[in-house]
Amino acid sequence: MVQLRRSLLALSVCALLSGGYAITTTANTSAKSYSQTISLPTIQYEKFSLPNGLTVIVHEDRKAPVVAVNVWYKVGSKDEVPGKTGFAHLFEHLMFQGSENYKGEFFEPFEKAGATDQNGTTNSDRTNYFETVPTNALDMALWMESDRMGHFLGSITKDKLDEQRGVVQNEKRQGENQPYGKVWELITKASFPAGHPYSWETIGSMEDLNAASLEDVKAWFKQYYGPNNAILVLSGDIDVATAKSKALKYFGDIPPGPSITKAHSWIAPLTENKRFSMTDRVPQSRLIMVWNTPATGTKQAEQMSLVADLLASGKQSRLYKRLVHDDKIASSVSVFNHSRQLAGQLFIMADAKPGVSLAKLERAIKEELSRLQNDGPTLDELALVKTQQAASFIRQLERVGGFGGKSDILAAGEFYANEPGFYLKSYEYQKNTSSKDIRRVMKQWLTKGNVIVEVEPASKLSKTKSTVNRSKIPGAGEVKPFKLPEVNQVTLSNGLKVLLASRPGTSTVEMEWIFDAGYAADAQHSPGTANFTLAMMKEGTKSKDSIALDKALSKLGAGISVGSSVDSSSIALSALKDNINKSIALAADVIQNPAFRATDFDRLRSNWLDSIAQEKARPFSTALRVLPQLLYGVDHAYSTPWTGSGTEESITQLNTGDLAKFHKQWIRPDNAQLVVVGDIDMEELKPLLEKQIGKWQAPKTPIPAKNLAKAVSGQDTQIYLVDKPDAIQSTIIAGQLLPSSQDERSLALNVANTILGGQFSARLNMNLREDKHWSYGAYSKLNSAVGQRPFIMYASVQTDKTSPALQELQKEVQQYISKKPASAEELKKVKDNWLRSKAGAYETNGALLSAITGLLAVNRPLEQLYNFDQLVSKISLKDVQQVSQELLKPNKLTWVVIGDLKKIEPTINKLKLGKVTKLDKNGKPI
Q: At what angle do helices 358-375 and 299-312 cross, to 10 degrees?
């Protein structure tokens, strides 16, 4: 996986943390002053080195019986040379193809052991591999990681190289096939001089990938994958003594590699303006502005990260308020400081509203940059961005592993600054940043030259003696007990049901009001009404407009999110324990007192229509818009686009009265349940809720009934084609209707789907990605629903393999219900993965909240979660095979294929799989 545009999130957020600090931000305005204090947790760690040079960092966190294993190799695309680009990322893929002592797919033992957050990423600076495993599986994980570090060279074959070369090339095609996807190669080349280590993309060029030889990749491993060029972080249910013992055992006998010279800063500041124009098949004009800035770890890099947040973090930020909210000349704007080892870059991206020229957009951006540079930010603004980052950091600390978790934070500090606790120094940099500093750093780096891209729509080391048995992988061992927090229930005086899973010590509280509404409720209104109403509720209350609301939340380090699924709508609050009372008050105001102002409505509707156009420009989201009506029929409550955005026609006809009506009918206490997970108990929670929402009453009118009548499935295969001229990939999605999530066979069906296509090592992905390398990924999915639930398969494939891929997908399902049914080995693998991954899967408050609300949304009992182990253990092979044979119908699938029809339509017609119909992007027959 390529990290193309790595943001400073892990480091800039870390900048606000230090051991024992509590951040106090005080701001004065002409009207008032405020002071907000947030208590921040600390990351305790110990660092040591093995005799062979491997750096090991250990952090103990006994919250859950899991350990995050994170290995960073100090090599990225910057270490390549022209003509041999893409090696770092290609090698990352190869590292998942087995080792000398383990011949299979690297993911398989981890899936069996119940690993979570497993992946590998490459960027310009480094390559990392990480996973979070149950504590009992730690020996397995360390055996695997050490085997590919010390025993990998002999496993690389030409066949494996060719296979992964194809996968990477499809990944490159998939990225370039996205709207605006070709911009990044242009910016990369234009921003840095030829030969600069950042002057090529991490994914490399097609030519260089084709030219990569077996000797080349072996030389890459010998040069860069020695233990003396790596960092190992162990974070979680482990102590230092255990970590030292296991690290020495598994990694100590690996010989060191050659010494590597550390790269030095090379900012290559731009001294002139470079402007480029390009066209793409995109719905909106986009302006991208780029400046080269200082490298990570410097005071100015931290200050530039503050500049980025001041410009476009939240609705009160300079550019959002000017471009999107006030002038309404942009649908969206984002700013991020891409801080790296040699140099950084600050990006501004804005999508122009239809009819607005990029020149006008650029003038407005430059005016705001000039104002901020000349006047500097107010104390209020600086306080807000620091509070936001502190809150974000606290949420990161819930996870010992994964992207941005504690293991990532420690590894980043060690890599970039030779100091895992680098965030301490970063904190001081940002803490001492003044308005004058912001003005100074902007003048130095944002005034001399930049790249502008306009995108218009087309028309001495030793080793120890080995003590590890490399003939077999250590078993995962017995799973340590992991008990989910008990759910307590109360009913408020107004009838609202409240469920609480208390998790003391997490410092955060996650809350979600779930309403029995969703897209299905749109059937009584207009498509998109549910999501639009929820979105408008975030635009302000009767006492606070959207800017004031966003500012109030930011001061508290809180966030409110809204959304809908087919059956439910939800309003979620993410709050810090320190500020829970005021945070609940804001959420209660949003729920009870939405303003639905006409000015906000007009602005949001305009942006909403832009987003629908963007959906139609993206193949997969186009398929998600078209497929529902083909499966359910146009009159069914589930036939609305699965993006939840509705249609241009329905959104255009919508008015504020429609939103008020939806809110009154559906957003009410007798139609809701509130789920709370986090650092609070019922004794404290209930009085807070009674105070803030206890007086919220339901209207006297009854709750409308949703029509979830059974849809009649077609009798034959249907294929629908949507043209995307010049597409370099085709997007394939197929679906059929299955019984409700409430069906007693639901869990067995979920197992069946996981075997077929629900995970990386499932049959579909092994076929199209690993065996044939036609696609970057092929999967299947079961969506939850109260009514009939959809089963879908999907893949993006290279254009010339569209028809063969259709055949292979159908063949896989056909064989699954006949000649090659689910095997006992596959069933055991899924069960082991599910049972062993539970601790990692529910590590965070948000993850547990999502699991609970997911069951409530489809009226399933919580015993499905709390008795999960017993329920899963009872599933037999016969159950899985029988439910597959009864329900999966490979000859009655509805297919949607989006691609260049002049290239793919003739071959699809020749397949004679079923009736072929051409549709436009709205799903209407042509």
A: 120
640, 469 Cβ separation under 8 angstroms: no
Q: What is the 3-state secondary structure (H, E, C) of 146-188?
A: HHHHHCCHHHCCHHHHHHHHHHHHHHHHHHHCCCCCCHHHHHH
- Classified as helix, coil or strand, 472 is coil
Q: Which CATH number fits domain 46-251: 3.30.830.10, 3.40.50.10490, 3.40.50.720, 3.20.20.370?
A: 3.30.830.10
Residue written as token pair 């912001």: 438
180 pLDDT above the threshold of 90: no
CATH of 718-843+866-919, one of 3.30.830.10, 1.25.40.390, 3.40.50.300, 3.40.50.2000: 3.30.830.10
**Among 202-206, 357-361, 417-421, 578-582, whose mean pLDDT is lowest?**
202-206
Please tell me whether the overall predicted TM-score, pTM, comes out greater than 0.70 for this model.
yes
CA distance 40 to 38: 6
Q: With 50 as the cut, is the pLDDT of residue 662 above it?
A: yes
Region 9-42+265-395+426-457: CATH code: 3.30.830.10
The three-point CA angle 670-679-587 to 5° equals 40
Given its phi and psi angles, is residue 262 left (phi above 0), alpha (psi -120 to 50 degrees) or beta? beta
In the chain, CATH 3.30.830.10 covers 9-42+265-395+426-457, 46-251, 489-693, 718-843+866-919
Tens of pLDDT, residue by residue over 303-313, are 999 999 999 99
**Alpha-helix runs per DSSP H in 263-313:** 299-312
Query: Which of 719, 730, 844 is CA-nearest to residue 776?
Result: 730
Distance CA 310, CA 320 (A): 10
Does position 478 have pLDDT exceeding 90, yes or no?
no
What are 374-432's pLDDT values in tens digits?
999 999 999 899 888 778 878 888 899 999 899 999 999 999 999 998 977 887 888 88
Other Cβ atoms within 10 Å of 479 Cβ, number: 20
Map residue 525 onto helix, strand or coil.
Answer: coil
Structure tokens belonging to residue 317? 């930020």
Choose which CATH entry (3.30.830.10, 3.20.20.70, 3.40.50.2300, 3.90.420.10) describes domain 489-693.
3.30.830.10
